[in-house]
Amino acid sequence: MDQNNEQVMYNYAGKFINLANEMIKSDHSGTVGMAIRFAAARFSVFEASTQTNNFAEDRDKYFQLIAEDFRKTLQFNFEDYIKALSPK
User: Fold this and answer.
1) What pLDDT sits at residue 3?
2) What digits encode the pLDDT tens for the residues 39-86?
3) Nearest one of 33, 55, 57 to 44, comparing CA atoms
4) What is the 3-state secondary structure (H, E, C) of 15-76?
5) Structural domain tally of the chain?
6) Which domain holds residue 45?
7) What is the SS3 assignment for 80?
């Protein structure tokens, strides 16, 4: 991803995070986190379906790509939070 697209991606992500932060002010049940993960999964599947002419046949390929991307993103964010929360 080039630097411009990366900045756009972070801006979009920030909008989703800001919305989730607003929602969590009145809902501490864990539903907000579940909803954002569901939405991310749902949109990821939709996006993958637009990239192929045979979605059923290519399902496993896209599943692996999306799952690996999420794993890397999750790992990066865990490490980022660990650094941010560590005593200075």
Assistant:
1) 86
2) 999 999 999 999 999 999 999 999 999 999 999 999 999 999 999 999
3) 55
4) HHHHHHHHHHCCCCCCHHHHHHHHHHHHHHHHHHHCCCCCHHHHHHHHHHHHHHHHHHHHHH
5) 1
6) 3-85
7) helix
